[in-house]
UniProtKB/TrEMBL annotation:
GO molecular function: acyltransferase activity
Domain of life: Bacteria
Protein name: Stage V sporulation protein AD
NCBIfam families the record matches: PRK08304.1, spore_V_AD
InterPro entries, per database record: SpoVAD (IPR010894), SpoVAD_sf (IPR038369), Thiolase-like (IPR016039)
UniProt cross-references to SUPFAM superfamilies, sorted A to Z: Thiolase-like
């Protein structure tokens, strides 16, 4: 059976299952609308560590430990891990996961990393290279601010278009063991650059990439927005949401009635002062492992297009005056009885 669909997509012959998911978040995330759905909420942003980077590594470690405990799977039965974060050289991932002694593919897709990790994990299981793998991604507000913006002590004022990096890690176990959620296909995104240079407006930078991959998903599978119960992007926030809806309307598709964004769902806009919403690798990952998977398992949603979004910049590229390209990857999730 031909599994390649159209230009950028795959339809799995033997769809792998999302066996279970785990989420670990910080205090601010725990006080948001999804707070009761996370597996662990820490009141200590340092997670008992000495640095912000060590704290993010602890997020990953705890998420994997919880996932293995929930699923009843031993680490020796996990063939590979696909994981990433926002820090240089993926140090949150390398220091956080090395103790598990599981073969690792370190990934960087900016905030789209959870989609990339799930797509590669599903492809690996579907192809028969592994019975089960773990896909995960993390971010930490303070480690991201330190690397990409200003030290917290500086107290810089954030514009209203800015988003708040989620402190959290989400991890899923993907395998052949049947569950209520399966991955039926994926659409790999391309790098899309509309020339936006405002690094404090991630929604505007990433929305074109989200529009591109969603449109391509429709084209490759010969479907439209009516095929899905929900289309959920990773961290476009309120600014990017409006842009994405407008861009797809220009192509003849109106997703507004069945669309939301993880960065919108995770924080309360009125009480939590996160401006445009949530962002970061952990934003889509923890929202998936709580809110999204729960609604699919309960069959509130039969089909979901999960589209983590990423802004491909670094401090070097920004300081050299480069624009901020975006990328997004689409993962097709379906309820399974």
């Amino acid at each position: 059976m031909e599994q390649s669909k159209g230009q950028q997509s795959i339809l799995f012959q033997e769809p792998p299952y999302v066996i279970d998911g785990a989420s670990v978040v910080g205090d601010k995330e725990g006080k948001g609308p999804l707070g009761k759905m996370f597996d662990r909420v820490s009141e200590d942003p340092m997670f008992g560590m000495n640095t912000w980077e060590e704290a993010e590594s602890c997020l990953q470690k705890e998420a994997v430990e919880i996932l293995l405990g929930k699923s009843g799977v031993s680490k020796v039965d996990v063939k590979y891990m696909f994981a990433g974060d926002l820090l240089g050289q993926l140090i949150a991932t390398s220091f956080g996961l090395m103790q598990f002694d599981i073969p690792l593919f370190g990934l960087y897709g900016a905030c789209s990393t959870m989609g990339e990790a799930m797509a590669l994990g599903a492809m690996t299981v579907n192809a028969g290279y592994a019975k089960q793998v773990i896909s995960l991604a993390s971010s930490h507000f303070a480690s991201a601010e330190k690397q990409f913006r200003f030290p917290l002590e500086y107290g810089s004022q954030r514009p209203l278009s800015a988003s708040w990096t989620v402190t959290g890690c989400g991890a899923v176990l993907i395998g052949k063991t049947k569950s209520n959620v399966r991955i039926i296909g994926t659409t790999t995104g391309k790098i899309v650059d509309f020339g936006v240079k405002d690094s404090m407006n991630m929604g505007a930078c990433m929305a074109p990439a989200a529009s591109s991959v969603i449109y391509q998903n429709f084209m490759d599978f010969g479907i439209d927005e009516s095929y899905y119960d929900m289309i959920i992007t990773g961290d476009l926030g309120y600014v990017g949401r409006t842009i994405l809806i407008d861009l797809l309307k220009e192509k003849g598709y109106d997703i507004s009635g069945k669309y939301t964004d993880c960065g919108i769902e995770i924080f309360d806009q009125n009480s939590q002062d996160t401006h445009a919403g949530g962002s970061g690798c952990g934003c889509s990952a923890v929202t998936l492992c709580s809110y999204i998977l729960d609604n699919i398992k309960k069959k509130k949603w039969q089909r979901v297009l999960f589209v983590p979004t990423g802004a491909l910049l670094s401090t070097v590229s920004f300081n050299e005056g480069k624009s901020v390209p975006g990328i997004a990857h689409a993962v097709m999730l379906e309820h399974c009885n």
